[in-house]
Amino acid sequence: MVSLYNTGLELANLLLGSDLLNQSWEAISKLQKQNLTLLEDPSLPFSVKYQIYENPSKGSVIAFVSSPNCAVNHLQQEFRELVSSDQITSFDFLRTRSNASSISIHKAAFTLFSSLENELSLLKQQFTSSQPLIVTGHSLGGSVASLFTLWLLESLPSYGAQQILCITFGSPLLGNNGFQKAMSEHPVWSSCFLHVVSDKDPVPGFLISDHNASAATLTTPTWYMPFGTYLFGSESGFSCFEEPQSILELMIMSSRCAESENLHNRSQVIDYGHILEQLKNKAICRGISELPDSISNPLQAGTYLLLEATGVGKLQENVNLSYLAMNIAKRAEVQAKHKQNVFDPFKISVTKKSLTYLEYYIKNSLEESGYYDKYKTRRSRSRDEIESTENLIKHHRTLKFFWKRTVTEVENLPLKEGRIRRKRLLYAATNYRRMVEPLDIAEYYGRGKKDYVLHGRSEHYKLLEKWLAGENTQTYQRSQASSLTVDSCFWAYVEEAVISCQVLKGSPQDQQSARGNLIKFEQYVMDMINNFLVSREIFLPQSSFMLWWNEYSKVVGNSYTSPLTNFMNDGVRSYA
């Protein structure tokens, strides 16, 4: 069964059978009774209370409640506001290079969390990964419970997440689309969150129940999106969903209907304890009627049963459950297919064959013009060499595809995890770039193009170069030539020098600029030579570099001297 509801269904049935939902709500109820005066005074500003309930046999429960109790009549337009990523430094660990500016969190929830941050920091230090812990909360208290759980998860090793479960009741959505995407990068973390929502409670969908709901796909940075598992409750039973867009659609419909039913009682606060008591002995999605003929496969059937259990059909007569079930099921199938095709960027061994072939190709090119020029002039080779080059093209594409996907995956990781992965991959990534990018350059200039560095260079090469620069690796003084030219764009600069050399033979108005470019190139080459950063293959007689040098020497004449001319005339043989 597709993960649209499979794991959530198992989790929900497990929680009902283990009484953990009731245990969580009992902790919330105790805390609410202790703060009854504050909870019932709507004139007070929002605040949050928490309490730890120890149970040696079952672990600890930390409950959060907001005061006053959050009902629809308390919620104003400013309640919809988000706080952007530059103001939520406590959750910087969610940011990646690609989403650094797109993550936003519900402002009211974050403000309440911040008011307790010092206390919660001490509480976080007390928790160890060996202790079972339930973090729970109602309404805005549930939002604060979610933020604390997330904060706690980041500080624990991955196996520590198995000991934590966050259960919220009637909580508003917590973050925007960027926040949901960041959470999707942490499936283990997402699995720790269960949000219980009643079909009678308008609060969970309040943030999307007005003009936001007019968009069928709420993907802009300012819209709220759900994360984790949602447990929808009605008189018919409970149903679970994990796919965000499906949850959103259900919340929109349920919220509209709940607001309509509670129009004359907008101060009503839903008693989730009563709902849990009614459903205590019910399995999820039990007692459903026959399926419509339009339902054609097991996934659609399961989705239909779940939708019927939410009570959507009873709440809104014009809802076509069959149509909705088929749409949600189709989206789940697409999501599942995408997950099956997720590329694992860290299995470097899959590229070993291609790297081995490329190393073999480089080694067997050293007696000629070098592998750059052998690849560049492949059209004039013999049949055997053409076949060899065709194999190289295949392996070249394999490596490039692999590393493009790898770079994309790593760049989308949270910053902390991304740094770790980049460090692990740095040697292999740098070696790949220095071996393969010259082949891209050969193809580029072979098509008669110019300015590879500005107009032709793939973004993933630029990022790989930034990885190396970002690690602040210590430089050391080389005593012999590098086996691979360190600057993977070296041959692009050679090709530009060839073009500039041709310009020197042309109109006088272009010669000054070309001569300036060639002087800079000379300085660049000498710096590379002095630091042994170029491979000896650039000095092979038929290499593009030597062909450029021979032509350049004729253009500038015998009277021209420079460090490079002195080296080329006297020092090439000594370059070890």
TrEMBL record:
Residues 89-205 form the Fungal lipase-type domain. It holds the Pfam family Lipase_3. InterPro entries: AB_hydrolase_fold, EDS1_EP, Fungal_lipase-type, SAG101-like. Residues 358-567 form the EDS1 EP domain. Its main location: cytoplasm. GO terms for molecular function: hydrolase activity. It is found in: Cytoplasm; Nucleus. Keywords: Cytoplasm, Hydrolase, Nucleus, Plant defense. One of its GO terms (cellular component) is cytoplasm. GO terms for biological process: defense response. CDD domains: Lipase_3 (cd00519). This is Senescence-associated carboxylesterase 101. It comes from Solanum stoloniferum.
